[in-house]
């Protein structure tokens, strides 16, 4: 369907352009009177556009106002999700959780493009299949078969941390937009892409991607023009896939669109369905469970001969009934990552429109002439993140080295000391804007790991740890955080990193005498003394909903939990979202 719609839109663009040019530029500007799409008038183009297309796998979630937060009792007395009215703009959300087969497609693409020269990029994306292991349970079959065996093809992928889920969303954005250009005939299908020679939407829009061969371009109506590349103004590209915000996920899970009369919510839902029980009253399936969850101690699937939810662990993504938006498994099966950084009092601080905590504003790196710098032909790492993870910092003394402690043998301790020197040098080079040399220094460190003697049994964990801190890969455009100097006259924000705003920054401290400490470390240690008095820092990410291993309490969309963004479990998966542009009311 999306192919037919896009081809029809291309037909409209072509016919409209020919018609407008031949008619001397019909369609005049209401402000200047000059005709649009007329070469004689300068060629300002206004492409025909009706509606944002629905991307593959997505469902439109029409937004609105709702009461976000707790709808059930709070037996843990956390008080981190008190009720508050907010509004959500319309957006798109995956109909199901991302499946094993979807993630295997992603891994196959990474292997095809990067495996030979950049195997560490592939390693970063690999799910942790060992999350299925329990010290006093036999789950080895799930370790061996769950991700790759075709029997589990349509089951939700697990063992994926927040960073991996985000990377998958970015990859999917580029593959869908590339597909659209191929369907338009603008790009030739080019499966031989390797390293930095792969399609990236941002690189294409900045004239830094050509592919194998261009089949055709759009007509350029400017006086000196001939052909041109696709622009954002043409309405062909879709917005990026991303993780949903906590507010979006909770709103979509409740599905109140099917429970309203005019502007009145008939019944505030406890779950994504009406009522306070977890069984259906459908006469054909009376009494069946409507979600995959743990009914009680030791009861994951019911009694033999009548397996109620028919799922010992996870279930296929299309199991059970969808909610009123047509979304499957918004309660049970697996919990799901969302974009937000966790704070217990976010409900007090965030905006009441499109609420979200986690903004870090960035911009593309530009040269002295203002042009966007060439796309990367090397791997960009988070150097400070590697240092913090490996040897610790003042703000976070917890580290791989410290946790390993006395269990290291002399060869392992010597290797870590060598790696630390490489990291310090990489940080220094990066601060001097010698970005490619800083990257090479980390590659040298990883070569040290690869060439370590056999008695270094932690080599694989070290290698994987370094891979986890890849920020950008060859073919991406390099970004940087905006600076305070760039925003001196702004009223809406100054700093790039707003994660701590009103909860962890200097403005939220109660002791003005600690200004020096705040100035040195931005307050992260003062408010949340990570690993000492708190498990919270700016890497704690929210995940929503119940899973196959949770009781009915967690099926309520208002519940919320958190986990470090580099950790994963057998109970957390994810689904992708996409921003709705233009009118919040669309064609279903």
What would your notes on this structure say?
By secondary structure, the chain is an alpha+beta fold. It folds into 3 domains: 2-41; 60-186 and 230-358 and 538-588, paralog of FGE (formylglycine-generating enzyme); 380-472. It contains 15 helices and 18 strands. The strands form 7 sheets. It has a 4-stranded antiparallel sheet with strand order 1-4-18-7. Strand 8 (260-261) and strand 9 (264-265) form a beta hairpin. Helix 2 (100-114) packs antiparallel against helix 3 (119-125), helix 9 (383-390) packs antiparallel against helix 11 (410-431) and helix 12 packs antiparallel against helix 13 (459-467). The chain is globular.
Blueprint of the fold:
Layout: H1 2-22, E1 58-61, E2 64-68, E3 84-88, E4 91-94, H2 100-114, H3 119-125, H4 140-145, H5 162-184, H6 201-205, E5 218-219, E6 227-228, E7 241-242, H7 246-254, E8 260-261, E9 264-265, E10 335-341, H8 346-349, E11 362-364, E12 380-381, H9 383-390, H10 400-404, H11 410-431, H12 435-450, H13 459-467, E13 470-472, E14 479-481, H14 515-521, H15 524-527, E15 540-544, E16 560-564, E17 572-573, E18 577-579
Parallel strand pairs: 10-17
Antiparallel strand pairs: 1-4, 2-3, 4-18, 5-6, 7-18, 8-9, 10-15, 11-14, 12-13, 15-16
Helix pairs in contact: 2-3, 9-11, 11-12, 12-13
């Amino acid at each position: 369907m999306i192919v037919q719609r896009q081809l029809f839109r291309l037909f409209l663009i072509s016919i409209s352009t020919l018609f407008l040019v031949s008619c001397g530029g019909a369609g005049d500007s209401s402000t200047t009177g000059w005709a649009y799409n007329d070469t004689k008038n300068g060629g300002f183009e206004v492409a025909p556009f009706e509606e944002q297309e629905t991307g593959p796998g997505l469902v439109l979630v029409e937004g609105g106002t709702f009461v976000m937060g707790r709808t059930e009792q709070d037996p843990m007395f956390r008080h981190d999700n008190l009720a508050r009215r907010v509004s959500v703009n319309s957006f798109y959300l995956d109909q199901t959780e991302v499946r094993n087969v979807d993630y295997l497609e992603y891994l196959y693409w990474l292997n095809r493009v990067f495996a030979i020269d950049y195997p560490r990029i592939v390693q970063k994306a690999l799910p942790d299949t060992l999350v299925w292991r329990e010290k006093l349970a036999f789950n080895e079959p799930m370790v061996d078969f769950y991700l790759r065996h075709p029997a589990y093809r349509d089951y939700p992928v697990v063992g994926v941390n927040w960073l991996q889920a985000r990377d998958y969303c970015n990859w999917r954005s580029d593959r869908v937009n590339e597909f659209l250009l191929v369907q338009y005939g603008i790009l030739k299908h080019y499966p031989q892409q390797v390293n930095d020679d792969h399609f990236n939407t941002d690189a294409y829009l900045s004239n830094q991607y050509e592919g194998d061969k261009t089949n055709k371009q759009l007509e350029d109506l400017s006086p000196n023009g001939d052909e041109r590349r696709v622009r954002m103004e043409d309405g062909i590209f879709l917005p990026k896939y991303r993780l949903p915000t906590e507010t979006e996920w909770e709103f979509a899970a409740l599905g109140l669109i099917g429970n309203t009369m005019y502007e009145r919510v008939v019944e505030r839902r406890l779950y994504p369905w009406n009522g306070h029980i977890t069984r259906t009253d459908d006469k054909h399936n009376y009494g069946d469970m409507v979600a995959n969850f743990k009914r009680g101690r030791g009861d994951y699937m019911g009694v033999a001969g009548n397996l109620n939810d028919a799922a010992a662990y996870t279930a296929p993504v299309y199991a059970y009934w969808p909610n009123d938006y047509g979304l499957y498994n918004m309660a049970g099966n697996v919990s799901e990552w969302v974009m937000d950084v966790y704070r217990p009092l976010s409900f007090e601080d965030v905006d009441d429109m499109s609420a979200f905590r986690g903004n870090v504003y960035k911009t593309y790196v530009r040269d002295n002439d203002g042009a966007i710098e060439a796309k990367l032909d090397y791997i960009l790492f988070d150097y400070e993140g590697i240092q913090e993870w490996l040897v610790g910092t003042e703000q976070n003394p917890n580290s791989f080295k410290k946790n390993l402690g006395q269990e290291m043998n002399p060869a392992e301790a010597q290797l870590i000391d060598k790696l630390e020197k490489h990291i310090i040098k990489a940080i220094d080079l990066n601060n001097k804007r010698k970005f490619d040399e800083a990257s090479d220094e980390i590659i040298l460190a990883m070569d040290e790991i690869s060439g370590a003697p056999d008695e270094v049994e932690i080599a694989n964990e070290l290698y994987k740890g370094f891979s986890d801190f890849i920020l950008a890969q060859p073919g991406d455009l390099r970004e940087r955080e905006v600076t305070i100097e760039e925003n001196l006259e702004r009223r809406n924000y100054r700093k790039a990193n707003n994660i701590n705003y009103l909860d962890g920054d200097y403005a939220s401290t109660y002791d003005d005498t600690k200004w020096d400490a705040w100035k040195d470390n931005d307050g992260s240690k003062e408010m949340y003394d990570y690993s000492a008095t708190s498990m919270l820092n700016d890497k704690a990410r929210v995940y929503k909903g119940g899973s196959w291993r949770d009781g009915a309490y967690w099926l309520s969309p208002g519940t919320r939990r958190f986990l470090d963004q580099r950790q994963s479990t057998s109970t957390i998966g994810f689904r992708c979202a996409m921003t709705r542009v233009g009118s919040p009311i669309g064609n279903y």
